[in-house]
Amino acid sequence: MEAYIISYDMAWGGDYDALHEAIKSYGAWAHITESTWAVLTEYSAEVIRDHLSEYLPDGSRLFVVRSGDEAAWQYLNCASDEWLEAILSQDAIRLNKLHAILQLDS
Fold first, then answer.
1. How many domains does the chain divide into?
2. Is residue 87 part of a domain?
């Protein structure tokens, strides 16, 4: 499993709820900022891009990148903060404990 960062700018007329549900379908996710998410999945960046493109109207922008092992952030919500720390440290035990409680959109 790899961690990916997904960022988008949705063009007018898009359905945010449908896109968000598609992102959540990857299982382990964190809603980091208004239009930025992190997911943990076995799929490639290209597969994620192609899947999510189905939920974006023409003119929308989409960026999917596999996350590295170093990051810095500030003022994220507590759930996203803990999830990202566990992913980046590859702390599987902690991640499994967090997985069930962090499946919320905050």
1. 1
2. yes
The CATH number covering residue 97 comes to 3.30.70.240
Task: Give the C-alpha separation, 39 to 26, whole Å.
Answer: 7
- Is the four-CA dihedral 72, 52, 78, 42 of positive or negative sign? negative
Residues 6+ apart with CB under 8 A from 38: 3, 4, 5, 6, 29, 30, 32, 67, 80, 83, 84, 87
Q: In whole angstroms, how far apart are CA 73 and each of 9, 33, 55, 87?
A: 20, 11, 28, 14
- Tell me the per-residue pLDDT of 88-106, one tens digit each, with 9 for 90 and over: 665 555 566 666 555 544 4
Residue 106 lies in a domain: no
Residue numbers of the domain that contains 9: 2-101
Q: Is the pTM of this model over 0.85?
A: no
According to DSSP, residue 35 is labeled T
Give me the count of residues in the chain.
Answer: 106
Look at residue 95 in the predicted model and tell me its pLDDT: 60
